[in-house]
């Protein structure tokens, strides 16, 4: 059986389905309050090397990246303010 073709006028009168209720979102963890995400795209080899360092040092990639940012800041004559260690203490 052939489908009836819908003309432009009829198609514009078709109502879109009502949007589903927005999913309830959880608030950000307290550890993220006042912080912003910084991200970048890196070669697979660099990511694997960073992951290995994190495993070898029993830390996280985030912790290592914070240390790296602080090294950059110091090199540029700025205060080292990015690194927050496992215990929550600053630099």
Question: What is the ordering of alpha helices and beta strands?
Answer: HHH
- Give the overall shape: elongated
Average pLDDT: 83
Low-confidence stretches: none
CA radius of gyration is: 25 Å
Characterize the biggest β-sheet. Answer: none
Number of strands: 0
- The first-to-last residue Cα distance is 73 Å
Q: Count the helices. How many?
A: 3
**Percentage of residues assigned to helices:** 25-40%
Could you say which structural class the secondary elements and strand pairing correspond to?
A: mainly alpha
Question: Could you walk me through the main structural features you see in this protein, from its secondary elements to its overall organization?
Answer:
The protein has a domain at 51-91. Helix content is 37%, strand content 0%. It has helices spanning 8-13, 44-56, 61-75. The model has no long low-confidence stretch (mean pLDDT 83).
């Amino acid at each position: 059986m052939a489908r009836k073709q819908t003309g432009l006028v009829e198609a514009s009168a078709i109502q879109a389905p009502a949007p589903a209720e927005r999913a309830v979102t959880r608030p950000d963890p307290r550890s993220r309050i006042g912080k912003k995400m910084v991200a970048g795209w890196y070669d697979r080899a660099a990511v694997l090397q960073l992951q290995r360092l994190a495993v070898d040092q029993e830390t996280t990639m985030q912790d290592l990246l914070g240390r790296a940012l602080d090294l950059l800041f110091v090199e540029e004559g700025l205060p080292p303010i990015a690194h927050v260690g496992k215990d929550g203490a600053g630099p």
